[in-house]
Amino acid sequence: MTATKNPFESVELSIATQDAIQAATETVEGRRIGTIDLLFGLLDTEKRSVWDEVQLKSTFVIRDECADYPDANYEEGGSWNGVPLTVEATRAMAIAAEISREYGLSPIPTGALALGLVASADSGAARALLADKRVDHADLLELIHDCTLDATLENLDLLDAAKSARSRRVKLTRTLLDTADKLAQSNAAVGIKSEAPTTRIQADFVAAVMARAQSIDGTTDPTSIALLVASLELNQESELRELFDSMLLDPDSIRMLQPALDHFEDLPAADAIVRSRRRFDTDLLAAEIITGVALLDSPRVRELFRRLALTNNEVAAQSAEWPSRREGKPEVANAEYATTVLAGISGAVVTMLIVLDAIDTGDWWKVPLVYLIWTGYPGSGPRIGLIYAGLFTFVVNPVAGLAQAISAGISFWQQHVEIRVRLARTGVKLNGAEQRRVSQRFLTDRSRRRRTRLQMFRKTFRSASRRSDG
Asked: Over the chain, what is the mean pLDDT?
């Protein structure tokens, strides 16, 4: 399909479609309009209930993330009322016009434009809606078709092509499943001792990851860093992906650093699989394989982690803990709860002493010192707490200094308990600094998951309310 200068030049648009495109033009601020801009144009002007269902089943997109999903081809391909369009946006409009002509949809409805925007799985709009991997491309096309169009478009080429691609992927998966027995037989060749047969699910993922690692390295004996990239790419657990993304441990970041890592020695991917199987008695998925890569301690992988401000132990501990979360086991042990409560009480006591001293003396400048208390562990080490104790002794009073010293002691105990609990849970012993960083990521990850669940609940509630009102 070839794009014209204005793909909608000779066709009639519905008022809603015009409004959506106009809304997109008003937000681009001099740059080219991409498919993600047109998607937000639809979100801003369409009935929210229509797109609520799409986003509930795919991915909630927010305007702040617009820059994260540029079109793959950002060159100018056409224009709309003098505003330039990317090649992908021009193609999307042309597809919408073609769909409308083929099915007699005149004027062109917003649903046709929406289908055009996600016709290619590589467009910015499609990648944004597929980010959470709740649906695949074929499901997304079908979802938008059902939610945004009042008509049923039989034998739609776009949908048929996407379903065909999915069918090919299913056949590939079945082929991988059939290799399970062969993989089990070849374990001896790479030094893997299996007392029991390798499960078919495990073989499926391991075979897929090893095949992808071979493709990345272009050899039948891939390296451990290729196995790491392959595991991150094929990981299907969205929350685990978000955790690794927060650590900048994603395929794109690794590829950017690859040229600086090539002169470091690497170890075979098969050795990492051996480590993973020795540590876990469950099916090997992304978290388990990444644990094996981190524990293998390849010089190249170690340098990669160093450049990402990580250590092998941090990555191993965080990924080794994931299988327990997957099984629904408690994320926090009772001992950790106890030390956290004590730390909170001690912090509250120090806060009270500082505030009371400020009231008694009228030195209100002391109140901001409270900030130091509540930004302590795990943000800073317990030793910093002792420094604060000395500070409070001189600028507040000795009682406040003593209370802060006791609070710092509790932080030492809390850190020790957390290190012991994580060692028992994962088999990885962290030092104090590593444990604090892992704890911070754990708290951030838990907070993000709570916000996501709350957002989904609110969206669902609003959507249900609108339907009941309608």
From this structure: 78
